[in-house]
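>> received
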Amino acid sequence: MREKEKKKKKKLKRKYKRLLFFVFTLLLLAGGGYVAAQYTSGLSFANNSTMNEIHTELSDSSNTFEEFEGAEAQFGEINVLLIGNDARGDEDDSRSDALMIGHYNQSTNQVKLVSLMRDTYVEIPDHGMQKINAAFSLGGPELVRKTIKHNFDVDVQYYAIVNFEGFSKIVDVIAPDGIEVDIPYTMSHGLGLTLEPGQQKLNGDQLLGYVRFRHDIHSDYGRVERQQEALSKLKDEAMSIQTLVNLPKLMGVIEPYIDTNIDSKTIFTIGKGMITGGKDNALESLRIPVEGSFGDLRTDVGAVLEIDLAQNKQALREFLSVEDENEEPTVEDEEPAEEFKIEQPANEDLEQDPQYDENQKYKYDTEGYLSRERYYEEPAI
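>> returned
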């Protein structure tokens, strides 16, 4: 009975995934009036008094920065540097308000998210010890990439800068009914709105306030958790048929608020993988610095997080499963145990015995000695 239920569920899952992919493919191939109209609708939705200022600001900034030189993708894995830019028209020093690495594995369709706390004290190439979020204002996404590579030995292929002014509109297109969250206490300071405690659905503006709030006992730690929570729920919403139908409109909404080097082929690859195999995969997340690896420090650049660099480097690389070319192979990496043979010293007297059986000797070798695999699995006494 259980087997029948399992088979039925599998068939329904496959049917649902095929339907999602079918809708997605139709939208991509449509190329006609619907796509054009929806894209234009998205641009109109995004169009307000600040849109042109934001788009121009992102473009001008990227022109003054060093060209982004991301690493080549390896083993089917894609790393994207995600930068939440809190630039405002009256500010010259634009620092990254949110800094993340989005990781996508094409083989497993697994999505991972790493949040780098903005006060993490690291060495920025050619600029000395600074808060990691200063790298963006000093040299744009390329310097952020170099900083992460220099300190954590992890590289990225792409970047995406999103202005928070457009975040709320993106949310409203992906989740027109809102994103459900549980607010633990009143949030209002510095938000321009008030969020009351309790389980509720938040629209784009409210969710933006939710992920940016930091005036509580948890400070940036709580904000990072809320950002990861919101992105995880947005990822789930993005897998719905409704979002796929609104995909052209979503692209129109995003366009004025995002600066990226991700090509359309890569977007298609990720989108296809997420639809056909990624819906059931929960988003895994990690915060850097990890627990127990940092302390508060007062420096000439203000209050920072002094971190155990080696511990955090290892945690990040393990989370992203980064291979080390210089690493010695482990027992699991070597040949299987059944191919490992222990040479038994020759026993001339035994071999001359007419009752000697070669098969019996082979049996003794395999049963009388622990293979390499069995030896390492044996519990210590």
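>> The mean pLDDT is 73.
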